[in-house]
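name: query_chain
kind: protein
chains: 1
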Amino acid sequence: MRRYSNSSPESAANQGTRNDWVTLKTLFPYLWAYKWRVSLALTFLIGAKLANVGVPLVLKQLIDSLATGPNHPQALLVLPLGILAAYGVLRLCTTLFTELREFVFAKVTQRAVRTIALQVFRHLHSLSLRFHLNRQTGGMTRDIERGTRGISSLVSYTLFSILPTLVEITLVLGYLVLHYDIWFSVITLVALISYIAFTVVVTEWRTHFRRTMNDLDSKANTKAIDSLINYETVKYFGNEDYEAHRYDNGLKHYETAAVKSQTSLSILNTGQSMIIAIAVTLILWRATQGVIDGTMTLGDLVLVNSFMIQLYIPLNFLGVIYREIKQSLADMERLFSLLDQHREIADAPHAKPLAANGAEVRFSQVDFSYEPKRQILFDVDFAIPAGTTTAVVGHSGSGKSTLSRLLFRFYDVNAGSITIDGQDLRDITQASLRRAIGIVPQDTVLFNDTIEYNIAYGKPGAAKDEIIAAAKAAYIHDFIATLPDGYATMVGERGLKLSGGEKQRVAIARTLLKNPAILIFDEATSALDSKAEQAIQAQLKEIAQDRTTLVIAHRLSTIADAAQILVLDHGRIVERGTHLQLLAADGAYAQMWERQQARPDDLSASPLPDELGTDAAIA
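structure:
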């Protein structure tokens, strides 16, 4: 007998914290998959900046030509027109190359977002039930949403704001070094470094205020929504003023944080303007002095002034861009951390598809625990011969539903093995295993779609006739026919527009349509009235005749004719046999039967006080 230990849970998988460079390295391969588009976009970017830098140069030539005057009067009609034409062409090229860059790169960004989102979605479905029981769905979906949006924002700000500015700074500084006094380059460089350093420092400082403001806004909003959702409770206790005070208290804290955020923004804007004003003034002073000394022309003065304006206009948004980039990186980090989650249950490298031949199920000396300190199953050993029905009964928390979860391989056993036709579940692919098993759970959850969609989910692509046949077999077709929209009726979020019995009959129809070799009924008729239960029980017996069936039940009358009944108590099989054999044994099963016969309205075997709890809670 092979003994396996559980893999470490996903929650412990990601021990380290990503830094920004690791996040960028993770993103880069998705973008570089379209390297020709990336290269072409960068080419257009450089072309746009060359044209943008060329505009002041042409403007300088135009001013100098007008200031000095041509030697021949006819040249006055030719030279300025040529320069004006060049000026217009460069202006057009700046816009044209910028739009071409965005046109070429749009597919790269959107395809990267799509690829990553799909990969995360697939990975989440590959994680174990343990991860999904511990997750916070709302927060996780927000992480995915913000992360994908963060990719678009990061690429947009980097490629369309930061990188073009850096290219332009390089071109301008290079031109100033080659053609003018070194002081022009020194003043420009010092001003740029001061501007960027000041912006980064102040933005980091004020990010705290912004984050606090967002947090307080969320809390105030949560209180307001919670109060409105519980409107009747507020009215019952006459606590309108109390709720208003709570909401106003949240708004007051938000107001304080918002004032600090706005004040810090004013400090940032003032400091940036001061650095720009000093730099531009010094540049104009040097240029004016150069014109007076005769070392520079009026065109040179206009040129350097235009350079400064072109550099500082995009830098005015540096604070916002820097903050957004940092936020995008943080959002992407949370998205990529989902990909880092360890797959607790994975197909073995040698895993093969299940070869079902009758589908005999065997649990061999199985031990299992959701948590190391609390074992759920102890040496569970039984077989379900092919084509027969085995029922499992016991108090709540005895481990009945755990058997179905292990059979689906949502978890791996701690010790022992589970086989189907002699094939260990760990040696076959999960996809083929789950194709062979159909389940009608006690708590049926439906998709927020039509009844037809939910039934067809058992066999995507099924014909309408097959769907109707499954619905008739589950005794729900007549009900659907009475609805105004028939099979196109929307069932609502989690199927809440249907009653419990209607939802369960949809689940039965869905499983019938799947036509699996192995069936699991987990309290499949618990939400039905007596008449509907009797009809469906007869139908379930009919469809289970040629299938290996595991029935998990509290209501003993529904499993009296099972080929084998197992009685679980605290994770151990304490009795086994047919209904008559167990009654004759006068043990735990007989006691439960007597209690239910004495209280026919009690639909479940009442748990003892120290046995309260469910498998789901244990999980």
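note: The chain has three domains: 20-177+332-344, 181-295, 347-436+553-619.
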